[in-house]
Amino acid sequence: MKKRMKQLLALALAGMLSLGLLAGCQKDTAQENTKGSQTEDKEEEKAPAKDSIVIATGSEPSTLSPTEHNALAGIYMNLLTYNTLVTMDENMQPVADLAESYENTSDTEWVFHLRQGVKFHDGSDMTAEDVVASLERAKTCTDISNYTTTVETVTAVDDYTVKITTPTPTATLLYDLSNHGNAILPKELIESGNDFGKNPIGTGPYKFVDWQSGVSITFEAFEDYYAGAPAIKDMTWKIVPEGSARTIALEAGEVDFLMEVETVDLERIEESEELDTVQSKSNILSWMTLNNEKPGLDNEAVRHAINCAINKEDLVTVATNGLGSVAVSQLPVGMSSTSEENGDTYDVEKAKEWLEQSGVDPASIELSILCSNEGKRRMAEVIQANLKEIGINCEIESLDTATYVSVTAEGNFTASIGGYSSTDIVTFLKGVFHSNSIGSSNQTRTNNPEIDAQIDAIASTIDDDARDAAIVELNKTLNQLCPQIPLYQGSNVRAFNSKLQGVNLTPAGLTRFEQMSWAE
Asked: Fewest CB within 10 angstroms: 16, 50, 72, 249, which?
C-alpha cells in the first residue's frame, strides 16, 4: 500500500439491518511539485480540469429510469439525477433527504414534512403532489415491486406534508423509501408520459446531458441542487467493458476514476504516486443463480450437488485475486443475524452422493451460465471445470448488461453469475426469495408459500430480537432448499486520480460524486 494512501476503514456490519456502510476516503492536498519549471508546465498540461471528471465503467445501464431495473449500473446513474424522501447515512440508517423530517404517528401511519424550495431539473418546484404521484407510479412498476408493498396509501396533507399508511406494522418502510425505485419525479411529467429512461428529470445533484449508446453518458452539475451545487461541473461516464483497458486509460490520464478495478492490476495501481484506491468490505453476496423451474434444477438434491462440487476457494482467487471470502449461507454474512447451518461446503464425493440421491442423470442437465462481464466469465470457467468432474456439462454465454438483466428477470435461462445488494435484510429476503419478486429480482423463481409467509411475518415484526431469531430460522430453511449457489463476498475497490478529494464508497458499491472535488 503506497505511502500517501488513506485506506478506507472497514466499518462493522454485524447486528445491523443494512447491507452497507458509507465510507469515505479524503485525500490530502495535491503533492508538492519539487521538479523544475519545465516539468511543472508539463504536469499542468496533463492535470485534469478542476471542474470535470471522466469515469470508466464496465457495464452500461439498460435505462436511466429509477423504476425499470434492479441493476447496479442503473443505480449509479439514478444517484446522480434523483433523490428520495429518505436516504442512508454513513451507518446505513435512514435519514431525511427530500423529507426534512418525519414521524411515525401510529403503528401504520407516517407523516413526512418536505423541504421547501427544492427544484426539479426542469425548474419546477417539488411539492407533496409530486411525492404522491411518484410513489403511486412506483407501485405500478414490476421491477421494483418489492420496495413498494409497504406503501398502502399516500396522500398530500398540504403542499409540504405527506401521509403514508402501511398495510401492517413494518420494519422496512424507511428503507424501502430510500430505494432508487421510489425516487421523486415531477407530477406534470409523469402525467404527460415523459420517458424517464431517456430523459431523467429529478431533483438530484446532476442533470442528464447526453447518452451515446455503448460509448458514453454525460451529465452536468445541477446549480439549483437543494444541498448545494457539486464542485465537479461536468461528468462523463465512458463504457469500457475490458478491465485492462480501463486500467491503461487511468494510467494514461484518459479517465480519472474506475468503477470496476481489475484485481490483477490493483498492486500496480497502488504503487503509482499519481493514482490512489479506496476499498470497503462488500455486502454483495455473489452467487450462481439457478432457475428452479428448469428440469433437473427443480430438484433440491441436484442443486446441493452443484453447490458441493464447486471449489469456491479457487473461484475467489480467480475472481478477486484473493480479496474475498467463501460464501456458505444463502444470506450475506453481516446482515442482521444469519446462519450457515445446512449450508454446503466443497466436497466432490458428497456432490456425487447428492446426484445419486436425486435420481437425475447428470448428462441430462442442461446448464448454460450467463455472464455480463469478464469477471463473471472467469468464475463461470471455474464452475464449468468443477461440474465436469461430476458429469454435468455446461456452456458459458456472454451477454451485454441490458440483455443479461432482461433475460434473467424473464426467466429465459438456466443459470447466471450475479449478486444482490439491498439496504436491509428484510428487503433482501423479499427481493431474492419472495414469489412477489418473480419477474424481477427473484431470479431463481423460488415460489414457496411457506417461505413467503415467513418473509411476510418477519417484515411485520417490529421487535428486533424476535425478528433476528425468525431470520436465523428462515436462513436455515433457505440453506436446506439451496435455491441458488452462494459463491463469495468480496471487497469493493475503486481507483482514481490521486488529486481527487472526498472519494467515498459503501459496501454496496455506491459512490456519491457530489461529495467529490479536485485538490487545488
From this structure: 50
